[in-house]
Amino acid sequence: MPQLPPPQPFDQDDIYRTLLESTQAIPWKIDWASQRYVYVGPQIEALLGWRTDDWGTVQDWIDRIHPDERDQVVRRCVELSQAGVDHEADYRALTADQRYVWVRETVHVLRNAQGGTEALVGFIFDIHERKQTEQRLLALQRELQALSYQDSLTRVANRRRFDEALEQAWAQAQATQTPLSLLVLDIDFFKQLNDCYGHQTGDQALVQVAQALAQVCDKCNDLVARYGGEEFVVLLPKVGLDIARQVAERFRRLLQEQAIPHARSPFGQQVTVSIGAGSLVPQPGQDCAGFVHAVDQLLYAAKNAGRNRVVAQAVLL
């Protein structure tokens, strides 16, 4: 039986290098004292396009982090490395052809005999596809949330959004003792509008009224919402009664200028609204539901007084 040749000695470092360079993760090592790369796996070129000799110092790494993440990532990594704590970071890395891809970097801190940081070793992982999927899901979630707060017909906020915004504005006004105003308005003779023209034209009138209201109430803190049916509300944080009255009258004038046809309206055969405008500084023990009810009563006062008008009043609860 022929003799097999004796096993050849092997270089352990070569085996480790082969294992490292056969993985999809990109290995690297940095000398802490000189802040220079001692080793970068050749896989880096497939992911980022940079050659291994393009990584000379830590500054090369810093310069290739997206500006939006750079300061935070660098500060955190330096602090944890100095403290001898292993860590990881997600960020967008610049490619050689000037694109950005998402990567995750895991870092292990090597210490010397005195316990100080001697070197950093780690891996770079490609997480670009996963990050893009996460961002798409997040964008979809935000879109669905926005739709859940929007009236499907008029595209202004719905009753649910108004209820939440009112609670937040009420709590803030109560804490800071600043005024809070509310407009509650209703389209005059809306049933007759539907009877005359049909529900499709009635829906279009609701859309036009909502758009005009949003045009007048264009401040970032104002909220226009469809409260139900032909009724709308406008929430005006940090606004007193005089300004609330001005906003209401400005909207009535704009609606008059637009002259939306309404053959059965006694007011120039066009769409008009009645508006209740109320304001207060919320006090302890008071609640926002009582405030809405009080302003709703001002709306009914406007209707009972003949419609197509604003009734504005400081609210006492």
Automatic annotation (TrEMBL):
GO cellular component: plasma membrane
Alphabetical list of Pfam families matching this protein: GGDEF (PF00990), PAS_3 (PF08447)
Domain PAS stretches: 12-73
EC number from the UniProt entry: 2.7.7.65
Superkingdom of the organism of origin: Bacteria
PROSITE patterns the UniProt entry points to: GGDEF (PS50887), PAC (PS50113), PAS (PS50112)
First-level EC class: transferase
GO molecular function, one term: diguanylate cyclase activity
Catalytic activity: 2 GTP = 3',3'-c-di-GMP + 2 diphosphate
GGDEF domain mapped to chain residues: 178-315
Domain named PAC: residues: 87-139
InterPro entries: Diguanylate_Cyclase (IPR050469), GGDEF_dom (IPR000160), Nucleotide_cyclase (IPR029787), PAC (IPR001610), PAS (IPR000014), PAS-assoc_C (IPR000700), PAS-like_dom_sf (IPR035965), PAS_fold_3 (IPR013655)
Biological process, per Gene Ontology: cell adhesion involved in single-species biofilm formation; negative regulation of bacterial-type flagellum-dependent cell motility
Name of this protein: diguanylate cyclase
Source organism: Comamonas aquatica DA1877
